[in-house]
Amino acid sequence: MPKRKNIIIVSNRAATRMAAAVAREIDIPVTEMITRTFADGELYHAFPRDIAGHDLVIIASTPDDCAHQELIDLITGARYWNALSVNVVIPYLGYSTMERAKPESGEIPKGITRTRQIFRARPDYVAFIDLHSESVMHAHAGEVRTRHLWTEQVAAAKIQALGLENFVLVSPDYGFSKRVARLAGLLNCSHTAANKDRYDVDQTIVGQLSGVVRGRTAIICDDMIRTGGSMLQTVDRCYEAGAVDVMIMATHLVLAGNARQRFVERGITCIIGADTYPGQESDELLQLYSVAPVIADELKGYFRLH
Question: Which DSSP string do the residues of 111-129 spell out, in sequence order?
Answer without folding.
Answer: HHHHHHHHHHT--SEEEEE
